Amino acid sequence: MRFDDRRAAGRRLSWRLEFLRGQDVVVLGLPRGGVPVAYEVARALDAPLDVLVVRKLGVPWQPELGFGAVGENGVRVLNENAIGDARPSPAEQADVERTEQAEVGRRVRHYRAGRPRIPVAGRTVVVVDDGLATGATAEAACRIVRGQGAARIVLAVPVGPVSTVARLNEVADRVVCLRSVQYLGSVGAWYQDFTQTTDTEVTALLARSARPASAPRAPGGPHPPPGREVGVPAAGVSLAASLTLPDTAQAVVAFAHGSGSSRHSPRNRYVAATLNRSGLATLLLDLLTEEEERDRSNVFDVLLLARRLHAASGWLRRRTALPVAYFGAGTGAAAALEAASAHGADIRAIVSRGGRPDLVTPAALARVKAPTLFIVGSRDSRVLSLNRLAADRMHCEHGLAVVPGATHLFTEPDALAIVAELARDWFTAHAARPEADVPPRRTA
Predict the structure, then answer these.
(1) Which pTM does this prediction carry?
(2) pLDDT of 218 above 50
(3) What strands lie across the sheet with 281-286, from one edge to the other?
(4) Cα-atom radius of gyration of the chain, to the nearest Å?
(5) Mean pLDDT score across all residues of the chain
(6) Beta strands, E only, 40-129
């Protein structure tokens, strides 16, 4: 997997950092190349962005080979293995250190342009770079923020060697690396476009990030538009729902939740926000009224839930003129499969999170035509067995994704982020049509 450029890598990295949303987070980019990556992460987490100036100490006759790093506040980290291999003399090391420490000072003054450093004491600090090599620069960065009183340090990078990632886990509280590889080669080899980031670009990104929160964001940014509360007529009742329609949406995903409210489910809202940032519209739909929820038997009335979901899908097509897909959880996943099996359903794709497909009749499962992805936690053994049996009965394109270490509700670190990524990729591949094929969309 190669990244298109640093900004694209930052957007992908932000999906893996969603577990930090809502916390007291500061994002620090390592100039220059780490700042475009960090900018996207900060935007996605709605967190402040600053720079953390660290300079690699390069062997004089081979600058790409670092023997250590220096940073703000006089931090100095040496890589004894690299020094032993390259054998620079003490005088040569001292010359490099003086030069790079002077550059640290220059960059701090230039990048911040008089703005005060964002305080990190007592906060979660996400240190971001465009990749790891020896890890000396990242190690120095983590030591700097530790010395500044950070409560927690998360080092986040798109790519790095397995050995370096393992070593830095001893310095940071957590390392998030999209692509850990045995042999790195060079960081630039993992990018289609690795054009050198300029000082001008760094200062521009910092200035843009520093504007007031009330200022409008650029079109196409990762923040979804606010959901709109709507009433959906379905089989004689009006169902409460939240509809979110990004301007460039090419498909809409209806969320089916049999137990409790889909609109207020934190897990559904988390997944929906990820889909929205990828340009997918979402409808968080309560399939039962508040009074009906009090009768627990309604939660397991899959045919009732399926009839309402099917009716809601027709309303959704008329309202948005977009192709419809389903995301179901628990008995809601069973309702999604049952509804998709109806004659003329025309559902483009289905994702089931910890679903109960055993509550769907075998005949209905065999009639489903929509590409279906079952997502189950590896520790949810009973539901995993039920999903495997259901998958064996399907004749359409389907897949089973097992999230390592996850239980039924995916409450483990990163588990729900993996669910959201899997759902996004499945819907993007199967539900969205090319823009030219999408009819004009009505206003919600």
Answers:
(1) 0.52
(2) no
(3) 228-234, 237-244, 281-286, 252-257, 324-329, 347-353, 372-377, 398-403
(4) 25
(5) 85
(6) 49-51, 54-59, 62-71, 76-78, 124-128
Number of H helices, E strands in the chain: 15, 16
Tokens describing residue 182: 């045995």
Quick count: other Cβ atoms within 10 Å of Cβ 258? 28
Exposure b/e, 55-83, CB count within 10 A at least 16 = b: bbbbbeeeeebbbbbbbbeebebbbeebe
Token pair belonging to 78: 């040496």
Strand stretches in 105-146, DSSP E: 124-128
What pLDDT, in 10s, does the model give residues 139-176? 888 988 888 889 999 999 999 999 999 999 999 999 99
Q: The tokens of 371 are what?
A: 């590409």
Closest by CA to 69, choosing from 156, 167, 140, 144, is 140
Percent of the chain with pLDDT over 70: 89
303 by Cβ neighbours in 10 Å (0-12 / 13-18 / 19+) ranks as middle
> What whole-number distance in Å separates Cα of residue 13 and Cα of residue 306?
36
**Residue (of 2, 30, 42) closest to 158 by Cα position:** 2
Q: What is the pLDDT of residues 392-436, one digit of tens each?
A: 999 999 999 999 889 998 888 788 889 999 999 999 989 875 443
- CA angle, 264 then 267 then 268, to 5°: 65
CA end-to-end span of the chain? 38
Give residue 276's Cα distance to chain centre. 12
